[in-house]
């Protein structure tokens, strides 16, 4: 594993009136790792992720992507730089097909004069590409690429959302509670998909309250408390109850791993 973080933050601060959502928060995502971010309700996890993805502009602090200081002005700005976020609720557009969902916001127009004048979409290309992306990710239990997403199971939908995030030259994929609404089997598929993406060299940030899932896939666990990172622990060296105790303040972060 390279020692340079791909995405890094130092001293992020964000206040909402009197509420300090981020209080000198640090963050490091290494290439080719699954980094879990855990914390109690209101600890500031969402605000941290939003700051890293242009959805919230921090009051101050520094963000670096591949070592370069960066100031995202919007989520589109972050997306254009290869940072893709899958939110639990906004994952997909139910009425659109799988292929259309994969290309949402990145539709491919036909190259010929018809495409130029009438802005006609190149559906053949989009369907071929969608099939290829889904099969690369082992998601081809989905039979028909033109099937509306609302007819898929929860796990398949989440699969499409994750495939979309991973498909287009992304450098970082952030998953916000990707298994929260899923059953056991479907969760398993999404966890397997995460491991497959990691094996393909894509670093992943997993925000989750589900400790068994976190401990199953994470290489490191960032623990957030009261607006800041208080520790980064190795799940092989700590139990789930340690993680929860550190997260809630019942246990001091281990000295070697305190942030
Ligand atoms: N837009 C906002 N306006 C006012 N306060 C906010 C806003 N967003 C977040 N906060 C406050 O900032 C603090 C951190 O919230 P945040 O949503 O980042 O926590 P979280 O760790 O993601 O919590 P959860 O696990 O419950 O989603 C909370 O006290 C929250 O009420």
Automatic annotation (TrEMBL):
Keyword set includes Repeat: no
Task: Please list which residues make up the signal peptide.
Answer: none
Keyword Nucleotide-binding listed? The answer is yes
Q: Where is the ABC transporter domain?
A: 7-251
Q: Which SMART domains match?
A: AAA
- Entry keyword set: ATP-binding, Nucleotide-binding
Annotated GO molecular function terms are: ATP binding; ATP hydrolysis activity
The record ties this protein, via InterPro entries, to: AAA+_ATPase, ABC_carbohydrate_import_ATPase, ABC_transporter-like_ATP-bd, P-loop_NTPase
Tell me which domain of life the UniProt entry assigns to the organism this sequence originates from. Bacteria
Do you know which PANTHER family this protein is assigned to? CARBOHYDRATE TRANSPORT ATP-BINDING PROTEIN MG119-RELATED, SUGAR ABC TRANSPORTER ATP-BINDING PROTEIN
Q: What is this protein called?
A: Fructose transport system ATP-binding protein
Species whose genome carries this gene: Kaistia soli DSM 19436
